Amino acid sequence: MQTAGLALSSTIAPGDAQTVYSYALAGLSHEALTTACKKLIRGEYNIDRKAFIPIPSELAAMVRAEQRLVSEEHARLRDTIASIELSRPENGTTEDPEARARVRKMLEGFRSWHQGEKEKETGGYVPEMPPSPEEIERWKKIMDLPDARSVSAEQMAYRRKIGMDIDAAEPVEEERAA
Questions:
Q1: At how many degrees (to 10) do helices 30-42 and 56-87 cross?
Q2: Is residue 107 part of a domain?
Q3: Residue 151 lies in a domain
Q4: The predicted structure's pLDDT at residue 100
Q5: 82 and 122 share a domain?
Q6: In angstroms, what is the C-alpha Rg of the chain?
Q7: E strand or H helix at 73, and its extent?
Q8: Is residue 99 in some structural domain?
Q9: Pick the residue with more confidence: 143 or 1?
Q10: In total, how many domains does the chain have?
Q11: 95 and 129 in contact (C-beta within 8 Å)?
């Protein structure tokens, strides 16, 4: 806290500060102490001497208040977890292997149906990602170039794929212009 600009009270000798504060804060949680220090540095406590580190008894009271809040929050969380567990149905829990199998089967059915729908819309071709307008222009220029003397089947398939990507993206371009 001293590095944040708060000064140690003149009633405590600097050499004794560690011993006195350790005694006052014994048994209190690190989490509560950290929270109290952060709030002190931010000026969130309504105290008269905001430029000074509180005396050990005041700091201990602040930390105990923070610890009480943390304990209450933990209790609320425990109660919430307990109520969720009580409201969980006996059948169909996530641990039930039959329920997992049913969900897997439903998911597999949905995926195959969805893939079929995508293939119907695109004629069997599903582009990975629509090319950007700059990429389209670049590929159009490349496609306008004459082919080499010998072109492999793989190269022709890639050329058709690029052509389909360009064709799939062009209606989007026209819609933007409209």
A1: 120
A2: no
A3: yes
A4: 83
A5: no
A6: 34
A7: helix 56-87
A8: no
A9: 143
A10: 2
A11: no
pLDDT single digits (tens) 103-128: 889 999 898 888 888 777 766 655 56
Distance CA 152, CA 148 (A): 10
Report the phi/psi class of residue 124: left, alpha or beta, with left for phi > 0 and alpha for psi in -120 to 50: left
Place of tokens 């064709």: 167
CA 175 to chain centre: 35
C-alpha distances in Å from residue 63, one per residue of 16, 94, 106:
20, 41, 53
- The tens digit of pLDDT for each residue in 90-100 reads 654 567 788 88
Range of the domain at 162: 118-177
Band of the pLDDT at 149, cuts 50, 70, 90?
confident
What are the distances in angstroms from CA 23 to CA 17, 20, 27, 177? 10, 5, 9, 74
74 and 32 within one domain: yes
Q: Are 6 and 53 in contact (CB under 8 A)?
A: yes
Instruction: With beta carbons less than 8 A apart as the criterion, state whether 127 and 160 touch.
Output: no
Q: Give, in degrees to the nearest 5, the angle at Cα 168 between 163 and 169.
A: 100
Q: Token digits for 169?
A: 């993206």
